[in-house]
Amino acid sequence: MQAIRKEKPGPGLTLGEAKEPECGHNDVIIRVRHAGVCGTDVHIAEWDEWAQGRLKPPLTIGHEFAGEIAEIGSEVTEPFKVGDPVTAEGHLICGHCKQCRTGNGHVCRNTQIIGVDRDGAFATYIAMPAANVVPLHDIPTRIGAVMDPLGNAFHTVLTADIPGHSVLIMGSGPIGCFAVGIAKAAGAVKVIAVDVNPKRLELAKTMGADLLLNAATDDVVQAVLDATEGDGADVVCEMSGNPTAMRQALKCVRLGGRIQMLGLPKEDVTLPIASDLIFKGITLYGVIGRRMFDTWHQMLDFLKSGLLDPNPIITHEFPLDQVDDALAAIAGGDAGKVILEIGEDR
Fold first, then answer.
1. Which of 147, 288, 304, 327 lies most in the core, judged by the most C-beta atoms within 10 Å?
2. Whole domain around residue 72: which residue ranges?
């Protein structure tokens, strides 16, 4: 089968042939139709410090995908059938550690991630444990392919109290724009989106943002206070990982408010903990991945009911052999969500 591979340490990716995966007793084989491309894949292609410390080539990359079931393992008890459209949770957890056994599998200490720790989804077929597979029913696979990052946004937003509250989204990349739509659908009375990229702010507006702030030209803190009668936002979702944005988040949240932290800074960040966190009575929540599997059920409910339409954020689609163009679109900074179209007969 065709696959996008990191064959050896160093910059670059290879489009070539790979062995089709075998179907274990508790696995399903999924024929991939669409796959999402994200910043992680850019890091792997560029072979930056993170990739050097984490990946062990050779490896098929890609961790966001959707397709149809092609084969079912002999011991799979879930009611799957060949041809069912599905996606899957790309974090494979042990099920035995304290975190897994207390309903916190998203922070399993033994997590493996497809496309990072084991072969991923930029390929014609992928094998997945049946327990990780999520039926799509009538949801198209191009939407299923973005449910991994969409789930990050759901986790970020819906672990806070949203109905009737003001929400500030710091960073309007694809996940930030998803978060705007989720907050509006969940009943936020005002959603404020911040970025330095005008095109991304326009995407945030498309998803329902009530106020757009350009951090390069606007006084973000004052504008948020003005928009919230001097109180500050009830909930701040920090999606950028920018140190300045993180410090602004503490200034922008109201007394007793909540900050949801998803963005990843490249280095340690100095924050005024005493004055802007402790004395303000702030709750900080760190977000990783998707809660398994309540986040997935929330996504399915919002998508099937029509409460949320993520289509406007999918701005670029490429065939598998144009993965370099897909990565360049992301690196250019103006893209929303980028996906690959994959489809080859077995």
1. 147
2. 2-146+310-341
